[in-house]
Every structure is written in C-alpha cells, then in structure tokens.
Amino acid sequence: MGKVIPFRKRTNWTKADAYALQSGKRRGGGGPKPPRSGGSAARLGRIAAILVIAAVILVSTWWQADEMFGPPEGSQVSQTFGICGAKGRGSYCTSDGDTVTIGYGKTARRIRLTGYDAPEIEGACPAESAKAQEAETALRNWLNAGPFEWDGGTQPPRDQYGRELRYAWRTAADGSVEYLATHMIDAGLASGDGWGQSADWCG
C-alpha cells in the first residue's frame, strides 16, 4: 500500500487567485486581456457624426416647416412697393430679389425675406446681374398682387447685417396658401437658402 500524503489546506489564498480561477487562468499565467483601446472613442465619433448630419438637415430645411404645418401667425401688409433708388418712390420698396426697405435714410428698416436666396444685383458675372433684375421685378410683382402676411411680429430676428428676417405668404379666398419662397424658387429666380442649396448663376 502506497504512502498516503495528507491534504494541506492552502492558507495564502488571495483575491487575485480567486479572480484567476474564475477567469480560467492560473496565477502567474497572465491576467485577463486588457480592454480594447479606442472603442469608446469610436462610438462617440459615430454619435457626433449623426448629430452633425441631423443639424445640417435641420438647418437646410427649417424654412419648409411653414409649408408642412401651415403659416404661423403673421401681420398683414397691403402697401404698394416701388423700386428702391427710384425718384419719387414711396416708403415701401424692393432692393433686390429678396430684400425690401421701409422708410428712408438712417431710420429705414431693411427686411430680408427668408426661405430663398435670390441672385445679387452686383453679381459675379453679367448673367447673375441680369437674373437678379428679373428676381427683383418678380418680387415686386408678387408683393403688389394683393395683401400678404409675414412673420416676426414687432421683434423679428435679425441677420448679421441688422436686417429683419421675415417669411412671407399669401392666403387666397379659397384658403389656399402661396409662399413667396416657393414662388421665387419655382420661377427659377432663386435657390433655397439652406445649407448646400445655393445656385451657380454664372454656370
């Protein structure tokens, strides 16, 4: 009969040994694999990219909200618009295809009509200047076609040039609504004013 070796109870068992046993590794044979680096950063990067895309879409389509949900509460305008700079013009006039002026001199109010972007009178090329003249005429004809409304109230937002920002529309007797921005864009005299919607008038 062989020699019987008595069982000895281990007295120096540590938490590290318990962890190694639980993870299936012997003590001294290497610890658990370190966490992968960059995982959290990659996830944050994807979230940031999604937020940027969402913000771009929101900025580029904010003006269309009125068309989707109906016009906001606005104030009615029924004055006749002339041409700014013309001799004997009234206090209401059009400066270009998306800007009107009310009043004279330093106290005049300049209003940028939003939802579209018309070509510039002093354009980058003769073709843009010619299109800008068409846009100014089309805007004046629309404004003078009858009473219309614009938003902003008595405290409208302003752009970096201090111009009031207002969105204009006209409601017909049958309840249908015509938006100035849509009218100008459909006529080929303006582009959307959202991100990435500008037109090349010289192309």
UniProtKB/TrEMBL annotation:
InterPro entries: SNase_OB-fold_sf. SUPFAM superfamilies: Staphylococcal nuclease. Residues 21-40 are annotated as: Disordered. Gene3D superfamilies: 2.40.50.90. The chain crosses the membrane at residues 44-63. It comes from the Bacteria. Keywords: Membrane, Transmembrane, Transmembrane helix. This is Nuclease.
